[in-house]
Every structure is written in structure tokens, then in C-alpha cells.
Design a protein that fits this description.
2 copies of one chain form a homodimer. Chain A is α+β, with helices and mostly antiparallel strands. Among the domains of chain A are: 8-140, Butyryl-Coa Dehydrogenase, subunit A, domain 1 (Orthogonal Bundle); 159-284, Butyryl-CoA Dehydrogenase, subunit A, domain 2, CATH 2.40.110.20; 459-580, no CATH class. In chain A, 56% of the residues lie in helices and 11% in strands. In chain A, the strands form 3 sheets. In chain A, strands 3, 4, 5, 6, 7, 10, 11 and 12 form an 8-stranded mixed sheet that branches. In chain A, strand 8 (234-236) and strand 9 form a beta hairpin. In chain A, helix 3 (35-63) crosses helix 5 (106-140), helix 5 (106-140) packs antiparallel against helix 7 and helix 5 packs across helix 8. The longest helix of chain A is centred in the middle third of the chain and has 37 residues, at 286-322. Chain A is globular, with a radius of gyration of 24 Å. The two termini of chain A are 45 Å apart. At the A-B interface, helix 8, helix 9, helix 10, helix 11 and helix 12 of A face helix 8, helix 9, helix 10, helix 11 and helix 12 of B. Chains A, B: GO terms for molecular function: flavin adenine dinucleotide binding; oxidoreductase activity, acting on the CH-CH group of donors. Chains A, B: InterPro entries: Acyl-CoA_dh-like_C_dom, Acyl-CoA_Oxase/DH_mid-dom, Acyl-CoA_Oxase/DH_mid-dom_sf, AcylCo_DH-like_C, AcylCo_DH/oxidase_C, AcylCoA_DH/ox_N, AcylCoA_DH/ox_N_sf, AcylCoA_DH/oxidase_NM_dom_sf. Chains A, B: Keywords: FAD, Flavoprotein, Oxidoreductase.
Amino acid sequence: MTPFNPPLADLRFVMENLLDLDALASLPSFEGMDAGLLATVCEEAGKFAAGVLAPLNQPADIEGVHWSPAGVRTAKGFDLAYQRCIEAGWNNVAVPAALGGQGLPCVASSAITEMFMAANKAFSMCPGLTLGAIEALEACASEALKARYLPPMVSGRWSGTMNLTEPQAGSDVGAIRCRATPDGSGGYRLQGQKIFISWGEQDLTENIVHLVLARLPDSPPGAKGISLFLVPKFLVNEDGSLGERNDVRCVSVEHKLGIHASPTCVMAYGDEGGAFGHLVGQPNRGLEAMFVMMNQARLTVGIEALGLSERAYQQALDYARQRQQGGDLAGNRNVPIIRHPDVRRMLLRMRVQTEAMRALALVIAQAQDFAQQHPQPEVRAAHLGFVELMTPVFKGWATETSLEVTSLAVQVHGGMGFVEETGVSQHYRDARIGTIYEGTTAIQANDLIGRKILRDSAGHLDGLLADMRAVAADLAEHPCSLGLRLGTAVQALEQAARQLRERFATEPEQVLAVAVPFLMLFGQVAGGWQWGRMVLAARAGLERAGADRDFLRAKLLAGEFYAEHILTGAPGLAQTVLLQRCPSLDWSETLF
Amino acid sequence: MTPFNPPLADLRFVMENLLDLDALASLPSFEGMDAGLLATVCEEAGKFAAGVLAPLNQPADIEGVHWSPAGVRTAKGFDLAYQRCIEAGWNNVAVPAALGGQGLPCVASSAITEMFMAANKAFSMCPGLTLGAIEALEACASEALKARYLPPMVSGRWSGTMNLTEPQAGSDVGAIRCRATPDGSGGYRLQGQKIFISWGEQDLTENIVHLVLARLPDSPPGAKGISLFLVPKFLVNEDGSLGERNDVRCVSVEHKLGIHASPTCVMAYGDEGGAFGHLVGQPNRGLEAMFVMMNQARLTVGIEALGLSERAYQQALDYARQRQQGGDLAGNRNVPIIRHPDVRRMLLRMRVQTEAMRALALVIAQAQDFAQQHPQPEVRAAHLGFVELMTPVFKGWATETSLEVTSLAVQVHGGMGFVEETGVSQHYRDARIGTIYEGTTAIQANDLIGRKILRDSAGHLDGLLADMRAVAADLAEHPCSLGLRLGTAVQALEQAARQLRERFATEPEQVLAVAVPFLMLFGQVAGGWQWGRMVLAARAGLERAGADRDFLRAKLLAGEFYAEHILTGAPGLAQTVLLQRCPSLDWSETLF
């Protein structure tokens, strides 16, 4: 399989041109965090991703995980890779230094996560999930719990998981039945079954800290009666040493379409009387605590999609350069297939959408940094609003788009793409879960409309649209497509958003029926906005002496391609959203 | 897994309303072939597909095929199913009665193929490939060869395969190296390796008849030096009895993303001195003979995509009706997910695109029947022109669309869709080969532009566009979206086609770079054209006493959905095709 080539030049281009690194470095926590330091961090992370994680990706996919009643054995090489990962501290780059982490900004962790997911998504999910658990505990747990559990989780000696789903409770978390009963000594006994628990059991860490949603006795029904519990695999003594095995077990693992090396576990709590757990935060407020994890997890899944897209693109590009087949229009025989116009089209579709994801990921990450660290509350609020607005858009659009990008990578390989040996179909299989877990695309779209667009009293959307229009106007100074297409697309997005807002009160069902097309429209336009900014930066860069002209000219061309092949679809998506249905048809009729 | 439910009502609706069954029945070969008889044939085929083939689909996917040096053992149950298939004659429905087949029209075989592919694609490829080989032999082989080989192939006792691909010769068939040397007695000895040979070896039939492309000594280089050979697995004596094992062997099978139960073979010819073969047709004219198979095979692959789409839709629909999750806007808790607006949107996207494929498949099949059987040459020519124009459109568009449809089926299942046990991801995996084999989508698009649109001296495209416009005009008598959207979409298609024709001479590379978007535009508009005809038929049907009102009203609604969710994208695709690139950018620059 093609080695993974960390996209350092593209990461650096986005960081230096689309972010405000001076402002980032002026935040109290990030002093000295300049472009050079970020580049060094990315370079080192890239070496680890390419050298340690990427070579394990395909063998681990073939091997899968090994379940037995005693537990789960992960694929060959994962244990050593995990040890090297935590020794280098790659598992906690964005955890505050006060908690024992590296204290790097989200901007750095976004870049690192992209590369780790590109190199080996199944593996990288394990430390990724631990990060989410750390964040939830940091936000909601008592000081005593934090003191006992956070240090080994931050160091990576212990992992963390999130346990939401039950057979009858998937998208509808409120349907959870898992029970927690006070044990009289301040603790709880949990009983119930959880499914689809990623990395719910493994052999990489000394202990596993499960964050589990469950119901207390007499709790209200639905989502308002769910509490969060910390349930360790091994009980933890006051001094932090490990005690008895807790009453929680992985009773089977799923046989899945993709991410074969990530154990997806059925977890049984309390089969022998009750799994011991601590309450985290307030009773019946578990969902709020879980949403701390969830929002970051959604962004991380979007970054996974970016990583897989980049990896698939690289593999397709490599194949297209090496594979010789057919002649070109100039009469040359047996040319590398990259010379064929449609192969170039496919590679460009992959590339421009991947670059749009990367730019958006880093812009959102920077906003997270400002939202968390900026001294002024109104600046924090503005950035938080942007992050909250963009989280469902980025997660939904990037994961949906990664299905196309990884599919195109298969297509570029022709028949070889359908043969598992080539390794490219793994990305297609691995990507397929992205639109499902951490909230399906429809859940993202409902969140976007219901909680973001409709309740946007602070006008975050209007501010964003104004930014987008300004970029389109700046682009229009040159006679290229991107400015025009972006202007039209932003207008289409604005009109669609306005109409959805107006119609929701009277036609909520019809609005939700076009929520996903609206989300995709939003994502494509946001990608075009970032392409506009990249093209403006490339134009400016070309004026400077010593510029890498090939690199910057390629950005101009790629931006035009995005305009002509992606943004051209925006008005049509808006038409779908704005739909005017035939007045004589009654859509409440039974269609199925 | 959901049982397969033969779509008899939808097939009958298309046959009775979009086809001219009276004209079909007036063709000499198809006397008495009225709607009732066609419906009976479909019903019986549907029973076989649902009862015998469909239950084997998932177990066979899990089991795969078993290779050993002695040969390939197919999945459990395939042998019995195959015997039942040929006993009932389902393998040769469209083979002329004079050759021992059932002599049914292509319209019937299209419907039957759809159902067989829906039920079990991996299995149904075997008789499907045999049909292609029969057709090529019938068209090109000597009477002596036909007499010896056709009867057992038509009866199904022997199968047929097509052997084109070699490691260095995929899309570029002209790069074939396999050699054939005259053996002095009128036969040939073949040496070389073929890859990706579907059903190249199996244990279902007594013999396998390989049609193999190879080069004669001193043949011209490239595509004009390729000849077609018949190479049986077992030599065949003059009396038709089987002789010695021929020097052709399956040396391995591929481990693939999908169609696990279809053996994809690496075939070695002549490792022990030379595989005996007969020349089929003229020396160096092998590609022409192979294209007889290829054109039908391309249509069949499109029908495969239709079948998989239908099957995936049924499974998603079934799950959406049974799975309860979340509440609806009316305040009901735990409703079947089919009540959620986005689940309905996904199901409708699947359904309307699947129905568009079916309508187009049957319209093309009817044109094949007229092209082959009509007494008047000019009528035959007109229909042949339509079939030739639509073959790449249908194959490319249906297979690409089936990737989306099968992906949506996974999505409707949520997390359960990612678990292989559910069986729905099999359709997603099985569909993925459709855009690759029998010519990738790019190959179809190049054929569409290079050989169909540019050389359309008879004006087949103009005639088709006029038909489409007429449907849009008829629809416009009612104030619904479909007429408007179709009118706009046809205009977009026409403009795009005109511009591609004009620009090809000066900018061939740029034209070929948008060939696939053009093909997709063409397919979507053609699907809209058929939806227009279905809606007109449904409106007319609703006027009649005793009509199935629910069935017909659903067609009106589905047609509107196609207009608002699919045809809305047509103008944007046309914009991509019509692209006006930035004059200051040089696209010949190295972008990669």
C-alpha cells in the first residue's frame, strides 16, 4: 500500500494564511505558539503517523480483533504502537498542561488528529475516545474523582469510553434503560446492556474508564432522567492502585463493514449483581455532561473523514501516477492514467473537497481556541457561537463527502480498487461509519436547523454569511469563476436559511424533510468560502519574492475546480430546500 | 435479512404504460406476448428469485468461494439452485427458440434479470455471462462451432465466460498480450494470463466455454490485432461428448470488496504447452465480436444496479417500518422511523431513482426488441440508434446511482447498517463493482461523447430531446413541479450536448474532462423523462374506474419528489459541463 505522506505543506498553508496565528499566540495559554512551532509539532506528529501507525493500518484491518470471554486482543503491533504513542504524548496534545497534557491549541490537535486518522483510523479512535472522556470528567466530575481518574487517563495508562447506545436507544438517547441503584455507601450499582461501544474492551491499557448513561431509581422518563456514571473495568483504590475486576464485561464484538481493528463491543453491566460506578455531576443531568464529549466527538468524526479522504486521495494519486493504461490525445501510447482527463477530474474532486475540509477543520479549531482561551467574554461568545453553528455542518458534510472521496479512490484504481489486497477499498469501508456514529447526518441536520438556525438570536449565521459575501466580493476583482460561483452560492444559502426559518413554525415536517440537503448546501458553500480565502492568499503569495509558484498556482487552479464542479451544485440544492410542491398533492398521504 | 419481494406491480405498471405491448406482440417472434403473459412470466420468475435465489444471497456472501488447485467450489446451495434454474429455463429466456431458448422478448428478460440480480447478484452473473457468450458465438462463430457448442450452453449444461483483461490490459483492451498460435490442424494454442475473469472456474456446469481475446502471430499492434477464440475447459469431441481437460486453469481467485460468492479468477492459459482453442470469426476482428457481448453486458450491468437498488430499498423500507426510535412532531413516542422526515427523504431518493432505472431499462429493452425483430429496416435502425445512444448512459448512470441508493440503505439502518450481520452492507459492497467492470463510467462517458454524440448523423439525440420536451409540455398542463423541472433539465441537457459537440474539435481534453458529469446529467434527465411518462400514465389511470388509487397517487408524489430532489441538480451539472474557465489560468500546468 502507498505510504502515508503527511500533508505538511497544505497544513502549513492553511495555518499561515487562513488562521490568525499572532492572535492565537497572544492568548495566555499559547505563548510562543508561532507558525514555526506549529510546523515542528506537525512534522513530528506526521513522522509518527507515517512511520508507526500507517504501516499497521492494512494488516490490522485484515486481522481484526480477537474476542474471548477473557477479553479482547487487538491486532498485532497495536500494543507497541500504543506505548510509543503515549510515551511521546501524542494522546494528550490538547489537554491543558495543568492536567498533565501538552497544552497545545486545538489547531495543533486538529492537524495531528487528521494525520493520525489518515494513518490508522481504527487505532486512533482509542486515544480519541479517551480524550472525550477526559473532557467530560474535567467538566462535570467532582475534584475527588478527577484527582483519582484523570492523571492515568491523561498519561494514557488508562483509556476512556462513552457508553450511550442500547438496542432500543440509538439516535433516541432518551430511551435508555440501563439502571443505576445507590449502593448505600455513596456509590452505585449498574445493570444493563450497552451496544456499539467503540474500544469498550482492549488489551492496550491497564484500566478502562467507562462513562455510562443510566437511570437512577424514580428518575423522570425520557432524556431528563438520565445520569452519567463512571464505571472502571478494574476498581480503583483511594491511592489510585487497581483493585478487583468490576462487574462489566464485553460479551461480544460486532463483525462490521469497516474499522475492523477497532473493537465494537457489546458491554454487559451487572450480570453478577451490579457494576460499581460513581455518579458524575448532578443526577438526571447526564445528557448535558455527555454532550460535552459529544460536541468534540462530532468534530473529531469530521476530522476522521478528512483524514480518510486525504489518505484515499494520496493512494489514488500514487496509483494514477504509476499505472499505465491507454493513450492520450497527443498520440502517446500507454501513458500513466493521471494523464486521462477523467482521472484528473476524479483526483481533483477528491483533492478540492479534502482541502476544503481541512481548511474548515482548522478554522473551527481556531475558533475553539478563542472560545476557550480568549480573555474577553464577548469574543469567547462569538467564537463559541461559530463553533456551535459549524459543528453539525462540518460533521455532516465532511462525513458525507468522504463517502464520495473514498469511492472515487476506488474508482481511480479500476478493477484493482475492488480487490481488497490493494488496500484502497478499506478507506471506503472505514469511511462508511462516519455519517452514522456520533449522530447521523439527519441528527446533525436537525441540530443545525432546530438548535442553531432557529435559535440564532445572536446572529451568528448572519455574521458568517457577511464574511462569505466579503470573500466573494474580494475574489470578484479577478475575472475567475470562484468569485461568481461563491457569490451565487452564498445567496442561495442565505435564501434557503431564511425560508426555512420562516416556514418552520407552520411546516416543521417539510422543513425537516430538506434539512440534510440544507446541511450539504451549507457545507459546500462553507468549503467554497475557505477556497475563496485560499485563492486570495495564494494570489497574495504569488506577489511575494521567493514564493513557491507551483504550489500557489495549483491552489488557484484547484479553487477554480471547486467553483466549477462543486459550487455549481449549490443553487440546485437550494432549489430542493426551497421546494414548492404541487398544490394538488397531499404529502401526508401514505406513500409507502 | 428481509425476504425479496418481486416488484411485480411496478414492473407491470411500466410495461403496460410506458411500452407499446401491442406493437411488441405484433412482431413475428412475439405473437401472443401480451400484458397478461408477460405478467405471468414475471410472477413465476419472481417466485424463483425470491424463493430459491434470495435466501442464498447472504450465506453465500459470508461463505465466499473455495479455491484449490483442482478448481473452485462455489457456495453451499449454488449447485442445486443452478440445476433448478436451468431446469426451469430461466437461463435462456431471451435466447431465440430456434437455438433452444424460450424466445421471449428483451422486455421480459430485462424484468427477469432485474429480479435475479436483486435476489442474488453473485449467482446470477454466471448464467448472465453465458448469455453474452451465446450471443457472441451466434453472431460470429462458424456453423460448425455453433452446432457443437451452442446447444449445451443454451440449455445451461455448460457455461460461458469472457476473457479480456490482463494485468497490463484493463480499460485499454488493445494492450492484450495473450498469444494464439495455429496448431497446423485448424486449431490454435493459446498462452497467456487473464485476470478478473468472473466465473472463470466453478463446479456448477459440466464444461466452461471461455471466449478469449488473444493475438495471432504477426498480427498488427493494438486493438486491430486482436482475435477471439473459443477455449473450452474440457475439449469437446465432434459428437459433443467431453474429451481431455484443456490446458487452462484457474490459478487463484481474488479477495474482493463484494460479490464474494462470484469467483473472480486468474486464468492461466497454456502453462503446459498451450490451451487448445478455435478461432471465432475473422482473424484480428476479435474486438468487434467481443463488443457484441460487451454492449449487452453493459446493459446487464445497469440492470444489476437496478436490481441491487431495488433490493436495498426493500430492506431499508422494511427496517424503517419495524425499527422504532424517537418521537414525531405530533408528540408520539417511539414511532417507527419511517415517520421521520429524513428517513422518508432517503427512502424516496432510493425509490424514485430505482423506478427511473427500471423504466429506462424496460424502454431500452423494448427498443432492442424492435431493433432486432421489426420487419422494417428503418424502424430497426431508429431503435438501434436509441439503444446505442442509451447503453453508455444507462450503464454509467444506473451504476453510479446504485452506489448512492445502496449507501442510503445502510444509512437508514443507522449503526445496524454497519454491522455485516444485518446484510444491508452487502448490497453496498456488491454494487461497488458496477461502475468499474464492463467499462468504467469514464469509458462509458467517452463512448457516449466520442462514438454517440459526435457521430450522431442520424439525429438520434435530437429525436430523443424532442420526445423529452413533448413529455415536459404534456406535464405542464398541471401546475406541478415535474413539468417545469423536466423542461429546464432537458434544455440544460440540450445546451450541454450542443456545446460539447462544438468544442470537441478544438478542446477535446476539456470536453473529456466533463464527460462523466455530462453522462450523469443525461441519465438524470432521462430518468425524469420516464418519470414524466409515469406521471402522465398515473394521471390517466386515475380517471379510470376501478383504478388502484393509492398506487397511482403514490406515482404522482414520487414524480414530484424526483423533480424536486433529483432534477433540481440538472442545471448545475450542465453548468459544470459548460464550464468557462478563468482565462488567466493555464490548465496544462502541472497540478499534481
